[in-house]
Amino acid sequence: MGIITSFYVNFYDIDSDKLWMMKEELVHFFTENEVATICCLTEQQYPHCFNCYYAFDTETKILIFKSSKNSYHNQLLGEHAAIAGTILSPASSLMKAKGMQFSGKVISGELPKEVAKIYYKKYALAYAKPGELWAIQLDWAKFTNNTLGIGVKQEWFLLDEETI
Domains in the chain, please, with CATH? Predict the structure, then answer.
């Protein structure tokens, strides 16, 4: 099987006439899992990874997570900070392994109320814990699904407005 690609337009310029074309298998994987490992850079350009519970907006293709205001990674995530991350689905064997690698940018500024609704719908108890919601606009994702054969991968890319 070859690489399957699909594209979508920028989160801030959603046009109802344009279709979101992330493959359903990728959307399903993002929505069925809960914990991501996210990596950002320190001021000295060293990688720093953290784990978080996340929700996925199936329309805009953004990851949403909550973080304590005093956490180290919360201090590192600035305006349009570049991130990379992984999600691994629990598997009992190599043949059943599924995983996602992704990259994107932190969305800066106040998040739309719909973003909070998506997160708190999945994690209602998170209302009780203080913290800050973050959103990541994905620009690339690679899904590995060994249930279809060892190393079967599907990729998805963000299509820049300039190339539309």
Answer: 11-163 (2.30.110.10)
